[in-house]
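Hey, sorry to bother you again with one of my protein questions. There's a protein on my desk that I can't quite get my head around. No rush at all, and the record is pasted right below.
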Amino acid sequence: MFDGRPVAHVAAEPGLSRQCGHRRVRRFRTNGWDGLRERRSGTPADTELRVLASRAELRAGPDQIARATGVLAWTVTRILRRHGVPALAACDPLTGAPIRATQHSTRRYEHSAPGDMIHLDVKKLGRIPDDGGWRAHGRSEQVRGRGIGYDYLHTAIDDHSRLAYAEVLTDEKGTTCAAFLTRRRRLVRRPRHHPHPPGTDRQRQELPHQPRLPAGLRRPGNPPEIHPTALPPGPTANPNASTAPWPPNGPTAGPTPATSNAPRPSTHG
């Protein structure tokens, strides 16, 4: 840059884009060498407080808050969303208090310590032949239904640290999932004095044709003949008039006798 070379050519040497090169040049011209140091890209806490205070005072949208605070409108939107501020349509226009329920939940289930919660998932992936799949040969009858099977990608992600562990296995049976979780626990151990004890077994109930859990995979509290039972099924629909209980059986009230408005016959001769 000091030699008069284009910024795009200088940025390409370390593998940077032209936009990143110009951004670093602007930082250098504004702050000198201190401007080239790595800095936190998140929004400062005082800026978030100013945005929240402007929202409470103005009761306006991101565009007006951006003009009042000097923060980008998209950044204002992310700040309001991060702090769980409801939309203007869900608030009272005079007081600003929420008056409508929203689908957005401000409760976060991220735990404070590693090992408190482990997210488990299994992804079923079709195997690709050695000579290529349908993208190479099309969807003709000659390449369909070759029956080469599936691979099952088992993943375990720690809720706090986002540490991931994965294995490619041959099935997704209960015994396979339990063995995968056991291997994961051997590699990533919890602290010895963890504030929360391990949770109960929640693996799928074994089918009659599937083998029992081996002795090495059972916890000490689970006898060999007892398996974790499946949870009872929940309701599939909300109660309404069609699912309301029928009235009790019994005689119904009789009809009300009709009253005649015709004149009575005369008895005078």
About this structure: The CA atoms of residues 28 and 202 lie 56 Å apart. The beta strands are 118-126, 150-158, 164-169.
